[in-house]
Amino acid sequence: MLEKDIQEVLITEEEIRAKVKELGATLTEDYKDKYPLAIGILKGAIPFMGDLMKEIDAYLEIDFMDVSSYGNATVSSGEVKIVKDLNTNVEGRDILIIEDIIDSGKTLKYLVDLFKYRQANSIQIVTLLDKPTGRKVDLKADYVGFDVPDAFVVGYGLDYAEKYRNLPYIGVLKKEIYSF
Ligand SMILES: O=P(O)(O)OC[C@H]1O[C@H](OP(=O)(O)OP(=O)(O)O)[C@H](O)[C@@H]1O
Ligand SMILES: Nc1nc2[nH]cnc2c(=O)[nH]1
Ligand SMILES: [Mg+2]
């Protein structure tokens, strides 16, 4: 049903699964002596966070923050809004920010500055996808699954106008679906 709207699959379900296992093993090693707080950024990070946390064998806690700067558009408004804040105090904590994608970098820059201000002990960024060509601010992730080309991608948490988050792979929609 959704597949008819897809022009090209960029990253398959199997490739995502293998990468999530690999990232989980690395994070297990890096965080085995810590009590990290993984912060999933809603809504896009939901599938990645759900799969990744099961691969991290450490005393992990989770929380979520909902920030939004895109609305229904495919270009960042540049204004990051907090829709839902954390329930956890991050002071002194070792934080892992879990994201689906870094594009302009504005969402993560805002969050890193916020968690620094709130006096986290350490802040590391884990992102499934990185789109280096989209970058508008200086920001690098510490753990990256895949680089993606300069296209608006959907699936595995990533939406177009709130749809397609439930696709199990990452792809690009047919031109006629996008209204830009
Ligand atoms: O690097 P940036 O240009 O800031 O873009 C990345 C952000 O954009 C998307 O979120 P969005 O604001 O669309 O919210 P959503 O996760 O609910 O779709 C994505 O999940 C990242 O959080
Ligand atoms: N769905 C989706 N959301 C984004 N937010 C920032 N870049 C993207 C993208 O390529 N796809
Ligand atoms: Mg979105």
UniProtKB/TrEMBL annotation:
It is found in: Cytoplasm. Keywords: Cytoplasm, Glycosyltransferase, Magnesium, Metal-binding, Nucleotide-binding, Purine salvage, Transferase. InterPro entries: HGPRT, Hxn_phspho_trans, PRTase-like, PRTase_dom. One of its GO terms (molecular function) is glycosyltransferase activity. It catalyses: IMP + diphosphate = hypoxanthine + 5-phospho-alpha-D-ribose 1-diphosphate; GMP + diphosphate = guanine + 5-phospho-alpha-D-ribose 1-diphosphate. It holds the Pfam family Pribosyltran. Its cofactor is Mg(2+). Its EC number is 2.4.2.8. Pathway: Purine metabolism; GMP biosynthesis via salvage pathway; GMP from guanine: step 1/1; Purine metabolism; IMP biosynthesis via salvage pathway; IMP from hypoxanthine: step 1/1. Residues 15-160 form the Phosphoribosyltransferase domain. It is an enzyme of class 2 (transferase). Its main location: cytoplasm. Belongs to the purine/pyrimidine phosphoribosyltransferase family. Purine salvage pathway enzyme that catalyzes the transfer of the ribosyl-5-phosphate group from 5-phospho-alpha-D-ribose 1-diphosphate (PRPP) to the N9 position of the 6-oxopurines hypoxanthine and guanine to form the corresponding ribonucleotides IMP (inosine 5'-monophosphate) and GMP (guanosine 5'-monophosphate), with the release of PPi. This is Hypoxanthine phosphoribosyltransferase. The gene is hpt.
